[in-house]
Specification:
The protein is built from one helix and 20 strands. It has one helix at 150-172, and strands at 7-8, 16-17, 22-23, 28-35, 40-41, 46-56, 61-62, 67-69, 76-78, 83-84, 89-91, 94-95, 100-101, 106-107, 112-113, 118-119, 124-125, 130-131, 135-138, 143-147. The strands form two sheets. Strands 1, 2, 4, 6, 8, 9, 11, 12, 14, 15, 17 and 18 form a twelve-stranded parallel beta sheet that branches. Strands 3-5-7-10-13-16-19-20 form an eight-stranded mixed beta sheet. The two termini are 14 Å apart.
Length: 173
Amino acid sequence: MTRGGYITPFGGATPVIHEKAYVDISARIIGNVSIAAGASIWPGAVLRADSDLIRVGERAAVLDLALIEAPENQSAILEEEALISHGAIIHGALIGARSLIGIGAIVLDGAVIGTGSIVAAGSLVPPGMDVPPNSLVMGTPAKRVRETTPEERENMMKQLHGLYRKSRIYLKA
């Protein structure tokens, strides 16, 4: 994509953005980043992979002002349909498919968020924490409080599908 000056090669790695991904022109994409088809990166988000790699899966969404960084020897992976909310920070972690990271939550090095899980707004997931699939975690430090409900998982998918539809409109603009 060449719509703006938001893509920065680093150390011989140039971001790879699928033609069917949406990246807002105010987002910054730096280094060894791969963004899959249908993914969306919203205003002010920063994906910085100048030490390791970042992979954003199909139809994943990174909302406004979120930061994803891949520190030395610790990649940051967002599996398909992962949702990273406004102002969240992902620092070298794996975010499972169809998981939601709440507004302002922080997920640190080596943490693994299982498929279908929710990290509540403002929570801090410590380094190396392994969150089982379909879990709700909250707090500082985050603790598993229960399993996510089918309604919560359905609501998360509705949000993702809405973001996907909206991103298609922005992509055509």
